[in-house]
Amino acid sequence: MTTLSPSRLRMPRFLSSRSERRELAAGLLFISPALIGFFLFTVYPILQSLYYSFTDYNILQPPVWVGLDNYVELLNDRVFVKSLTNTLFMVVIGLPVHLVFDFTVALLLNARIRGLPFFRTVFYLPSITPVVATAVLWAWLLNAQYGLINLLLDSLGLPMIGFLTDPNWTKPSLILMGAWYGGNTILIYLAALQDVPKELLEAAELDGANGWVKIWRVIIPMVSPVIFFTLVLNLIGYFQIFTEGWVLTATRSGSAGGPLNSLLFYAMYLYQNAFQFFKMGLASAQAWVLFLIVLSVTLILFRTSGWVYYRSEC
Amino acid sequence: MSNTITRRGFLRAGATAVLGLAATKLAGCASPITPTQAGAAASATPANSQAFLNYWTGWSGFEFDALQILIDKFNQEHPNIFVNMTTVFGQYDKVLTAIAGGNPPDVVSAVWLNQLTAMAARDGLTPLDEYAARDGIDGSEYFKNVWDAWHADGHLWGLMVTVNADVLGYRRDLFAEVGLDPDKPPTTIAELDEAARALDKIDSNGNIERYGFFPTSLYWWGYVFGGSYYDEASKKMTLNDPKIVAALDWMRGYAERLDITKVEAFESGFGDYASPQNAFFSGKQAMTRAGEWFISFADKFSPGLDFDFMPAPYPAGGRPNCTTFDGSCFTIPRGVAHPEASWEFIKWLSQPANLGEFAYTIQNIPPKIAVANEERFNKDPRFKKAVALYTGDNAFGPPRIPVVDFFFSKLGEAEGLVKHGEMDPEAALNQANQEVQDELEKALARSGN
């Protein structure tokens, strides 16, 4: 070795030998299908959509640069605001309800009772049915005139409710339906609950803690990382809610949104703009706004995650 | 050297395989699908010099089968062209992305008139003027309304094989049941309102068991009341035309009288539209918006049903015998590989014998005058009524604007807002009009008009 080129100098030491570089090349080659796929089908479209969001683009004709016009238009779009508030309703109300329900069920399924495997199966079962099938099923259960739930209400002498036809009830009905999809979250909670150290619970018991106190002071802190994990994942899922709303409200003419657009969610309006109204540029801007919203909410969650207790810290 | 595989050799072989695979995959995306790949359904085996046409249709079920018979015939008569038909639902997104991806289907049909204008305005379609002029297709064989409807920006964008026109269907048996004369259906709005009320059936809890009529589609009723939505000369939307406002106000009357929440609760219990549980077949509606296709529909799902058609009753100052029509256009997307062959297929299908055969099988109106006058289309007086409506003076196709889907969406939204009592008709239509106008101006500026 006599001279070193500048590029050689910057190269990390482990790559200095010929065989190591060959190893690297081979390694890259092996993961190249994944890398190529990632760059071609994920990174490139994402960047392209960022570019489109600053253009007037209708898919058929070449995009024309319009600067921030699409973003300004969104702010002034009544329907956009409506779709955003509909979605926020689901995030702010649906998400906590969903998580509390799932956690409660997981606690119950963690109890030592007879027939536990049966109950666990029952609660997980709905998760394996496709969302579309579940939505259609619930559309009939919640039917305003012939639905089983309304027949029950009627037989109890209560007024029947237009679960999916009354604009004030549509979103709460969807949250109710959401209880069905909880299987996966319940399963995650269940795994975490079984991981709570028994000695801690025993110690708490010896100190005279009742069930309630054990849940609040021992169990919840111990599973808080998992709660946090499901919170973040479901938050993102709720922001992107699409299928249920679409299946329940899409009409034969192709429009969707339900009574007074009360089930028009963000992703549904995005789809309409992109593929029905030829406004791909606007739809791209909409996608980026959603990304920024989800990103900032997630960051806030991480910043305020002091309540999450990681066992490794102690 | 021996035959043992060295590590380097193995890697090299692996890399070649991966790259080769990627290359074939990419090539497979870009090149037109070859006949063998498509697994063509028809019997004929395509030769190498053939133009292979991918034809995307909106038809399925028995309608698809009827068309496939014709396509088989075409393939036999044209050894140098092979048409492969595929049902593609939700065509909008798929066709758009296919065109954008540079690999469009060669022919697309069941493009509705609104899609036709919207796609033509955005350079998505091949104009057909030259082909039509060359082959002597000048519109003289077609009903004028429909021939005009295929034009936008002065070009011909498609040929239609079947037409559908709106009529009001009514149950003669239910009319008789409540003492109305089934031979004299209402002709004015006042008579319609009266008949509708007489046919309503409400149970002791105030739930609807049957309604005589509940008007939908402001689009149609706006025309019936004498309004129009667009002024082509000034390029101005006129959704807030006082006559359209009046139509919406009339619709609001129904929503208030029957209570919109009760109506929606009732309607949510309607069975599948294309089934014997269709609300009209099962007697939950005594009158409904229908079309000439409804006859074969009823034959299939509710044989022997005693029903008839009437033109939309109209108010003073409104339009008698008013209908809105649409139909399935056959179009050639921009950038197809064999435009001549695509045109040949459309032209062949538009020949009176073929078009008539298909329209008759699926009981749609044929757009050609001579065909529509054939005996077989005139046996059923109901069908005749529908044909008379759409060939009359008060038949309207969708407004020829590039933002027609947006227009329909906003019109529907206004209808919903008013029926739910959220806005009064004038305010709702003013709002919708402004929004559509803004959108129209943007689209027109984009296309350089």
Strand content of chain B: 5-15%
Q: In terms of per-residue confidence, which ranges of chain B show pLDDT below 50 for 5 or more consecutive residues?
A: 1-5, 18-46
- Helix and strand element order of chain A: HHEEHHHHHHHHHHHH
Assess the beta-strand content of chain A as a share of residues.
under 5%
How many strands in all of chain B? 14
Largest sheet of chain B: 8 strands, mixed
What average pLDDT do the residues of chain A reach?
A: 89
Global outline of chain A: flat
Largest sheet of chain A: 2 strands, antiparallel
Mean pLDDT of chain B: 86
Helix-strand category of chain B: alpha+beta
What structural category arises from helix and sheet content of chain A? mainly alpha
Number of helices of chain A: 14
Spatial sequence of strands, sheet with the most strands of chain A: 1-2
Terminal residue distance of chain A:
51 Å
Radius of gyration of chain A: 26 Å
Largest interface: A-B, 37 and 42 residues
Helix content of chain B: 40-55%
| Number of strand elements of chain A | 2
**Subunit arrangement of the protein:** heterodimer
N- and C-termini, Cα separation of chain B: 74 Å
